[in-house]
Amino acid sequence: MIHLPRTALMRSMALCLTLAAAAAGAQSLDSLKNDASTPGDVTTYGMGWSQQRYSALKQISTSTVSRLTPVWNLSLDNSANASSQPLIIDGTMYVASHTHTIAIDAVSGKQKWKIPVELPADISAFLCCGTQTRGMAALDGVLYRTTLDAHVVAISMKDGKQVWKVKAADYKQGYSMTHAPLIAGGVLITGISGGEYGARGFLDGWDLKTGEKKWHRWTTAAPGEKGGDTWNPEMYKTGGAPTWLTGTYDPELDLVYWGIGNGSPWNAAQRGGDSLYIGSVLAIRPSSGEIVWHYQFSPGDPYDYDGTNELVLADLPVNGKSTKVLMQANRNGFFYVLDRTSGKLLKADQFARKVNWATGVDMKTGRPVDTPMTTAVKKTETQADFIEVWPSALGGKNWMPMSYDPAHKLAFFNTVNMGMKVKYVRQEKAPAPNWWLGLELGGFVAPEDGMRGALVAWNPATGKKVWEVPTKTPYWSGVLSTAGGLVFTGAQTGEFMAFDAAKGKKLWQFQTGSGITGMPITWEKDGKQYITILSGAATVYAALAGDPELANMPAGGSVWTFALQKP
């Protein structure tokens, strides 16, 4: 075996990247910046750095969607959760599953190459909340993805060959990765999962060409740092704050916005105080990981509300002035609008049907107004009786990303309407794969009317619901909106659906054969508009919520692509 010095090895890796870019058709950072306005390609997770998941394409519209029909379907050859978003680059579709990276001819559906992900045999024992991967990043002929055993991998678009691979963390300590990386400011940024195991959260910045680590940012504040006094002694070391969903990027401000997850354990009194930076958004410099500002949605968070849901960037009228904002429909049941230049709270309105942990958000302090129940929970490590909390740990909205229509300034997202029964107990940390929650979960509670979720149209400027479509089983798919006046999403019962964006009326649906938890995209080729969605559901909700509608729903992942039939 030939051993190269590290500098020589890096030069060799860089050369591989250059050759890969030349072979696959070079991209630039401008192609990522302009992704939302280039309908022929989908080069970023979220269909743009702002993650608006909106397209100006309108060939498929309210008047033509009845002619939408499948043009091809490709099996993913596994039965895991197919919660991924494809990329489209130069006529090739790239799809990530937890076991493979796949290249597909986007028009014909023919598989071009399929490369396996090497995973340890015992990986499933250390995974908290689903076997899946949500997508990839791409630049200059190279794909970037994460793996369940907490590695980051660079792959040639041309043939799927590995360019480099680095280890981000030890999966045997409870760490894993299921998210798409983010390319921002010429740096590859990744987060981590593992909050339920007491793994300490972080973000990493990587060199795109070599995989060398450029910076590392812990997401629990240590003693001597700002916020270090918001933890009980030593608890920050195992405090959770995972970073398991992909952030957004404003290139003009050169700020990355990344959501931070739950504290570990969930037992807030055991952790102590606000436990920064759990349940927050961090605005960071992509070149260094420096925190520019933060806002904490759920200080102390005893209910697993996280803050990781997508952070959508837009311009909204505030006091008669167009303002750069960041929006999030948080799991805690409130829809937040922040000034993304400063982190100042502009609006916080309840969107969840039932919220009993807080009565609202104080606009002067930015803090939620806790109910007596929450106040008691945060002070008491051990409770004698179960309490009923709304929303549940599933949230008023879970991870499935919203869409934002910038023309009509409306957001569209899927909600969850469930409560839970919990009782807090003191629990000492044990090594992974033992969960560290500090409570007993007494089960989930369904609403009296049986409507466990809804598709909602929301006006962020007014904080008001425009319309909603209730459903017995919550939709666990991402949402796509288009200039054709349509909103697309999928059901855990298998239907891929299109709704009228103005009224919420369902206009079209197609049964894909398995539940849908993927993220729809739309794109065009040679003047023809296509819609693509992954089907295949194996969700935590289905496993724990006792939903009778999913009792006979088969698993099995596949990729579906649709276009209009000729009239």
Which stretches are low in confidence, meaning pLDDT under 50 for 5 or more residues running? 1-11, 17-25
Total beta strand runs: 38
The radius of gyration computed from the alpha-carbon positions, rounded to a whole number of angstroms, is: 22 Å
In CATH, what is the class?
Answer: Mainly Beta
**Which geometry do the CA atoms define?**
globular
Looking at the overall shape, the CATH architecture is 8 Propeller
Structural class: mainly beta
Total separate domains: 1
Largest sheet: 5 strands, mixed
Alpha-carbon distance between the termini? 63 Å
How confident overall, as mean pLDDT?
A: 94
Describe the structure.
The strands form 10 sheets. The chain has a 5-stranded mixed sheet, with no helix packed on it. Strands 2-38-37-36 form a 4-stranded antiparallel sheet, with no helix packed on it. With 567 residues, it is mostly beta strands. The N and C termini lie far apart (63 Å). The protein has one domain: Methanol Dehydrogenase, Chain A (8 Propeller), CATH 2.140.10.10.
